[in-house]
Amino acid sequence: MEPTTTADVIAVLREHGLRMTPQRRAIVAEIMRTQGHISPTALARKVQGEMPGVNASTIYRTLTLLEEVGVLAHAHLESGAEYHRTEEAGHVHLTCSNCGAEDDLSLEEANALIQLIEQHHGFQPDLTHFAIGGLCADCAKELASAAR
Ligand SMILES: [Zn+2]
Ligand SMILES: [Zn+2]
Ligand SMILES: [Zn+2]
Predict the structure, then answer these.
(1) Which ligand minimizes its atom distance to the CA of 142?
(2) What pLDDT, on the 0 to 100 scale, is given for residue 1?
(3) Nearest ligand atom owner, CA of 85
(4) Which of 30, 101, 104, 147 would staple 91 via disulfide (CB 3.0–4.6 Å)?
């Protein structure tokens, strides 16, 4: 079963022999409250705002541990690596290299591309891991009219 609550996740970390300090609990609670992408720096800022004195390296180590036990998965976006809850990680990231806007493509929408890549020597692509850079529709329009 997927660990879906803060208590579940704390239980999983305990099973892996991790001592649950009040700081680690606060970090896990904040992660479980966050919707969508979890940016390590934004998380550190929030946790340190609530609990001054929490070491940034403790926060990053906790993110790594949560990935090792399957609660989180990371993806590389224009702004750097970010984390998702594993059950929310199944999509392709589209990031605008002009304005930084982010959009998601579902794996169903990406299916034709995945099959095309698989036809090439049977390579199995993981399109969820790295973002696809490009221009969002607004920036593409703006740049096209500026070039005219
Ligand atoms: Zn995402
Ligand atoms: Zn990676
Ligand atoms: Zn844009």
Answers:
(1) 3
(2) 57
(3) 1
(4) 104
Q: Is-contact 83 72, C-beta < 8 A?
A: yes
Residue 40 CA, ligand 1 centroid: distance in Å: 14
Nearest alpha carbon to residue 74 among 93, 55, 95, 47: 93
Q: How many CB atoms lie within 10 A of CB 9?
A: 22
Q: What is the pLDDT along the chain (148 residues), one digit of tens a residue?
A: 567 789 999 999 999 888 888 999 999 999 999 888 999 999 999 999 999 889 999 999 999 999 999 999 999 998 889 999 998 999 999 999 999 999 999 999 999 999 999 999 899 999 999 999 999 999 999 999 988 7
pTM for the full model?
0.84
Half-sphere exposure in the Cβ direction for 7 (13 Å, CA): 0
Distance between CA atoms of residues 96 and 71, nearest Å: 28
- Say how many Å lie between the CA of residue 102 and the centre of ligand 1: 9
Please report which ligand is nearest the Cα atom of 131: 1
Q: Which residue has 């794996």 as its token pair? A: 107
| The pairing of beta strand 102-106 with beta strand 91-96 | antiparallel
* Dist. CA 48 → ligand 2 center (Å): 25
Q: Ligand 3 center to residue 135 CA distance, Å?
A: 5
